[in-house]
Automatic annotation (TrEMBL):
<keyword id="KW-0547">Nucleotide-binding</keyword>
<comment type="similarity">
    <text>Belongs to the CbbQ/NirQ/NorQ/GpvN family.</text>
</comment>
<dbReference type="Pfam" id="PF08406">
    <property type="entry name" value="CbbQ_C"/>
</dbReference>
<keyword id="KW-0067">ATP-binding</keyword>
<dbReference type="InterPro" id="IPR027417">
    <property type="entry name" value="P-loop_NTPase"/>
</dbReference>
<dbReference type="InterPro" id="IPR011704">
    <property type="entry name" value="ATPase_dyneun-rel_AAA"/>
</dbReference>
<dbReference type="Pfam" id="PF07728">
    <property type="entry name" value="AAA_5"/>
</dbReference>
<dbReference type="InterPro" id="IPR050764">
    <property type="entry name" value="CbbQ/NirQ/NorQ/GpvN"/>
</dbReference>
<dbReference type="InterPro" id="IPR013615">
    <property type="entry name" value="CbbQ_C"/>
</dbReference>
<dbReference type="GO" id="GO:0016887">
    <property type="term" value="F:ATP hydrolysis activity"/>
</dbReference>
<feature type="domain" description="CbbQ/NirQ/NorQ C-terminal">
    <location>
        <begin position="173"/>
        <end position="256"/>
    </location>
</feature>
<protein>
    <submittedName>
        <fullName>AAA family ATPase</fullName>
    </submittedName>
</protein>
<dbReference type="GO" id="GO:0005524">
    <property type="term" value="F:ATP binding"/>
</dbReference>
<feature type="domain" description="ATPase dynein-related AAA">
    <location>
        <begin position="26"/>
        <end position="160"/>
    </location>
</feature>
Amino acid sequence: MSEIPFYAQQGSECGLFEHAWRQQLPLLIKGPTGCGKTRFVEHMAARLQRPLVTVSCHDDLSAADLVGRFLIGNGSTQWSDGPLARAVRLGAICYLDEVVEARKDTTVVLHPLADDRRILPIERTGEQLQAPPEFMLVISYNPGYQNLLKGLKPSTRQRFVALSLGYPNAEVELAIVQTETGLPQTQAQQLVQLAKALRSLSDQDLEETASTRLLVSAGRLVASGLPMRQACHAAIVDALTDDATTAQALDEVMRALF
Ligand code: ADP
């Protein structure tokens, strides 16, 4: 069996995921970018010994991209399953990342799959795929990016059990940074302190604040030999803003700490 990817729990989300999977309920994970949503799903799929099919949704993603299409080649036309149809047939966990980005027609295929019918109608072939009990649909979205046009419709969100993830507390985040980067505790601690200080700044013209992902990136640069400040500037400050004044303010927060 393949190794289970490391995931440090923020609360009791692993138990919730497992119960939802057993009860054949789809799951909606809400949370800011870089807070561990993808890693969590990877971890749970490995724990439950299910294949994982991940789709990063974007504004051009259509129902056909998810379900499949006829491909023409060598003088014949052949049906080719999209990732969602493949996941249903495999009894996999299907993770649709940033689902609100996808085109609206995708909800038509998600609805019958996300309620107790658990079917994926493939209009083009006339097939109706019945999801096996092992299949699970997991979607995520970032409420921070949500705008009035793009929020999930109540009829969609009410089909899902919901879970909110934020950034982990300092103790858990320290364990994550240490495990993911191999840095000694003192340096990992500095990164976690920097994140705490940056997160406490009020808006600061930032769309998003320092995520666990950014801390891990900075930590990896440090572990590879880059000085701490340079690593944090590149992996955290410049990743968060293009504005010189804001970058300066973030650098000052860093210099106050180390
Ligand atoms: P998201 O999907 O929410 O954008 P990811 O799951 O891709 O975020 O997390 C980004 C990175 O942060 C991961 O690759 C991992 O290194 C680290 N990470 C964040 N949270 C955790 C966690 N709880 N346990 C282990 N690693 C984590």
